[in-house]
Amino acid sequence: MQKLKIVTAIAAMIMASPVLAQEITVWDVNVDDAAHATYYDHAKAAFEAAHPGATLNLLSQPDAEYYTLLGTALASKAGPDVIWANGGAQAKALVGGLIPLDDKLPDLISKLVGKSAFTGPDGKLYFIPTTLQGHVVYYNKALYKAAGLDPEKPPTTWAELTKVCDTFKASGKPACFMMANKEGYNAEFFLSEAANQSLTATQQADWLAGKLHWSDPPIKAILQAWVDTAKNGWYQEGGNSQTMFMDEFALFEQGIAANVMGLLSNVAHWKQFEKNMGVDKVGVYPMPSPTVAGDQHEGAPGVPLDGGVGYGVNKDSPNIDLAVDAVRILASPEVLSYLVNDTGSVPANTEVNTSGIDSPGLKQIMGWLATRAVPTTHANSSAAELDEWHRQSQLLYNGEATVEQAAVALDKVQADAKPQK
Amino acid sequence: MSGAGKRQRLALRIAAVPMGLLALSCLYPIFFAINNAFKTRDDYMRDRFGLATQPTFDNFVQAWSRAHLNEYFLNSVIATLGAVILLMVVSSMAGFALASLRFPYRRFLFAVILSSLMIPVQVVLVPFMRTMLALNLVNTHIGLILSYTAFFLPFSVYMMTAFYSGLPRELIEAARIDGAKLLQVWWHVMLPLGMPALVTLAILNTLSCWNDILISLLVMQKHRTLMVGISALKGQYSDQIPLFTSGIVIAAAPIVVLYILFQRRIVSGIAVGAVKG
Amino acid sequence: MLFLLPAILLVLVFRIFPLFWGFAISLTSATSTDPGQFIGAGNYLRALDDPNFRSAMANAVAVLLSVPIFVTIPMLLAILIHQGVPGRTFFRSVYFFPAILSSVIIGSIFSVVLSFNGNLNALLNLAGISGVDWLGHSATALPVTLAIQCWSTFGMGVLIFLAGLSTVSKEMVEAARLDGAKMWQIWWHVIIPELRPIIEFSTVITTIGLLTSMFGLIYVLTGGGPGTATTVPEYLIWAAQGRLNRPAYAAAVSMVLFLMTSILAWLQIRILSRNANI
């Protein structure tokens, strides 16, 4: 392995040497974040050591304008060499401007998980995921205890979860779940968490292909569950105007609600909650399904999981090989370990050493990931469907639309975004 | 003084109360920004409105060095200064021509400039970027200055036209009868008379250029401007608000100082402009 | 004519030429990575069939109804400052401050103040009124967003009107006062007629501003929701251009918005500029 790396490095050096003072530009949105600093510094150092004379220019871009800028730059053939993107719809919309990486980095790719969020319609991989994104429910053990619930026994079935929420509802305060759906994100997470065990593997594949519709029973049941949980008072009031990042999670830490649908990436995860609430106060469980699929059994822990963020190579880059090597370094286990240790992200590369992390929450999560990780349903939806689901979920939450109306509107968007031949 | 004068003074005094409250509400965001720039991210999350109990300079240090704001500052100054001066010259000339001179297609040309005021920026992103690339203006200060001038010019021309058309025509006629050339009329009469509007434009355009993100994001990836650097501080989840806020405080400080200094110019500018009657 | 040349050149090269190019793009199926094919009016027909586009247009009309408020408030404040209200220097400096700061900061303040468990509802609860989810309900989200927009931009309007007031003759105001005219009579018969070019300017500028630069505030306050309650055309364009990767559709909606503002501005100028010599 070590030998291979040296060979690759030398090969890359030979390829890079004819032209001096080459610059590889990377567009990203996290470069200026203090918690990410060590990771980027090491990536830059490793790249520049491997390619004397070349520089790695890591540029942080404003998040609100990122995809507008990227789209404009790519259409004008003025994009960066290396492109950062969120997995799912955003990444898949960009594949036409990128090179497939399967033949370029076969060794690295064989070690990866969470590839589906970055795979093009041709089945090729266009981004190398660095970290994963997944969704679990975090809960406040102290509040469980105060409500008379066993803090060491989180719900495993929908019936148990309903009982938990009924208990909190009867006590008045705190709310059972945090709800932050101003941007529609909570509805996205709900969809993926509820679909996690509600859909069979075939149905998941049909969803990706656009053959399973929003008005079909398995999905419609999730829309209904969204409405019912709101109607039954699971959430704190004002969820439609609640900002998710980071207000919702700060409120959860303060004990406004007992449960929150959280992430596995670099924020709103076990690390943040364990740090701010205390290791013994935070628990985690996979969201049970309101309707368990026929090929699964109730209570089996599974987690919706996919590539979270990744790096791809612009097909118009004048230095494609050098850019590919920049991606390789950004996703290499050595460099990535700094990101994992500093931010608590779950790496997409199975060779990253995570032994330095000592967290009961993460150990549990890693166990579920190993046994049953399901593609993230919202990452397999088109951007247009997600946009419409944001809107419809808010109307459903307010009681301004019925499940029937929402499903019809969503079906229309789906048919347009994923036309069936 | 008549009774009406006394009543008016009383009315003004009463009006000062809600106006004062409004003024206080306008001061609050400044306090909010400064206060939160001294908090850590977690402190901010815990209590957004409370005082920073353990003030930290870390945000400023990080914003200034790690986010290269020290480099970006100069780029912003060059672009803003260049564009604002160019805007004032070009728009006062155009406003003078449109408001006071007679020539063919005047209405049509005015309509062309005015209509460009209504172009939503998104529709021209790709064509604009490719035009800039074709003219070799990407990543140059002159490119950004020209872009800012072009984007904020319609507003400025329109304002100068509106302002000049409020001035009595006799002033220009008188100067022309004296045998002055048009350029002299512009320089000696219109420019000084236009001061109140020009100073206002200078302030508004400084703000537009200084706070712009989208145009400079497209034109200047190499020598980025301050606001682009600051917007990039927010991170993937827009969660680095105190860090971002410290950047905003750094960026807004010179604007606030300049504006307060300019206040005197506005007052004297208004005095110069009061010629009618 | 020569005086106009630099302005016309700049506008033609950097604004009008890209506009025509953008119009050409709106007739294609382009994405950011594919120039696409010519599809004629396809994107415009798609807009007509898009319920979000229809809501955005309806919201734009609602936004336009608030233009008189956005013009009148700064005008009244500017006249009061001009007439010598006590504390005028202070007011003139301070009113401008919200406009200096980023909409992100304004948004961070108001999204907490207005949240269901926020400060405003706490105040209302003290008075025995039950709270409202101001930004979470379709009925209140847009008016509240507009109010915040008004508050954060009125300072610019005050500045513009103050510049315009400098052309109002002090002698005429004084003469009217000596004739025994009441304050409102002086305002109505002397000051406001003199301000007509600036009122027209301010109306047109405010209309354009509301239709093309509210994105920043909407993005941080409501994200266009709930549902489409605060989705204005500009927001739709941003989403289509960026995360939906449909730049050609964004171009088509932009062209519609451009046409709409142009017609509106033309109408406003027709109505308001009876005496302007343009």
Question: What tags apply to this protein structure?
Answer:
heterotrimer; A: 421 residues; alpha/beta; D-Maltodextrin-Binding Protein, domain 2; 2 domains; nine-stranded mixed sheet; 17 helices; 14% strand; globular; B: 277 residues; mainly alpha; MetI-like fold
Describe the structure.
The complex is a heterotrimer of chains A (421), B (277) and C (278). With 421 residues, chain A is an alpha/beta fold. In chain A, strands 1, 2, 3, 4, 5, 6, 7, 8 and 9 form a nine-stranded mixed beta sheet that branches. Chain A is globular. Chain A starts with a helix and ends with a helix. With 277 residues, chain B is mainly alpha-helical. Chain B has a single domain, classed as MetI-like (MetI-like fold). Chain C is an all-alpha fold and 278 residues long. Chain C has one domain: MetI-like (MetI-like fold, Orthogonal Bundle). Chain C has 15 helices and no strands. In chain C, helix 1 crosses helix 15. The longest helix of chain C is centred in the middle third of the chain and has 28 residues. Chain C is globular. The two termini of chain C are 15 Å apart. Chains in contact: A-B, A-C, B-C.
